[in-house]
Amino acid sequence: MPAAVETVVLLGFIGSGGWASFTASIEARDGKPDPLDRWSRRIIGGIAARLGGAALYPFGDPPYLPFQRWAQRADDVFVSPLGILIHAEFGLWHSYRGALAFAEGLALPETPLRASPCASCADKPCLNACPVSAFSASGFDVAICRTHISEQAGAGCMSGGCLARNACPVGSGHRYAAAQAAFHMHAFRRG
User: Fold this and answer.
1) Which domain holds residue 43?
2) What pLDDT shows up at residue 1?
3) Residue 1, domain member (yes or no)
4) Model confidence at 109, in pLDDT bands (50, 70, 90)?
5) Residue 67 lies inside a defined structural domain of this protein
């Protein structure tokens, strides 16, 4: 990270936006590890070079950068009952692939402040949809989830995405397509 940073601009996907660009890339087809991370580095690194910023990423080696805190300062995102960030409009269907850091302050548009959609969700279907109850008030049990999706009983989660995440009604029009959801589930299972 540069020594002096006045502005950080987060970059990522909303729903399946950008997914076709990734799947058409050389990184998606070359069979090497971490294709989405390598594609993100190439694309975001190119943008940073053109705009005179520094490229930053939420993946790679420690120390990890505080992308989730940056997101909470920049937009209407909140910690959901699942522990992942939920956006007031896009729900659980957004991701941060990188950021651009600039030494100068940039004039950025104001966003309207909205409340967490989880605050008014009485039923919390996300907490009851997991077939192995991997989500609870004490957090997310990664081991139980990974064991489940490594067995035949977890085939539905692997092919269509996390059932708890899919149960959230917020931003359902931005839900990942099956191939995108499966890609992320396979990456999660690999650890």
Assistant:
1) 7-190
2) 67
3) no
4) confident
5) yes
From the centroid of its chain, how far is CA 155? 22
Number of domains in the chain: 1
Q: What is the mean pLDDT of residues 168-186?
A: 95
Residues 113-120: contacts with CB under 8 Å, at least 24 apart: 113/76, 114/76, 114/88, 114/89, 115/88, 116/78, 116/86, 116/88, 117/78, 117/86, 117/88, 117/91, 117/170, 118/78, 118/80, 118/81, 118/86, 118/170
Q: Are strands 94-102 and 7-14 parallel, antiparallel or unpaired?
A: antiparallel
What tokens were used for 135?
A: 């989500």
In eight-state DSSP terms, residue 116 is -
User: What's the chain's length in residues?
Assistant: 191
User: Does residue 76 sit within a domain?
Assistant: yes
Supply 27's token pair.
């990184």
Considering the domain boundaries, does residue 2 fall inside one?
no
Q: What is the mean pLDDT of residues 103-127?
A: 90
pLDDT band at 72; cut points 50, 70, 90: very high
- This prediction's pTM: 0.90
Q: For residue 164, which amino acid is it?
A: A
User: In whole angstroms, how large is the CA radius of gyration of the chain?
Assistant: 18
CB-count burial class (<10 Å; 0-12, 13-18, 19+) for 182: middle
Q: With beta carbons less than 8 A apart as the criterion, state whether 22 and 39 touch.
A: yes
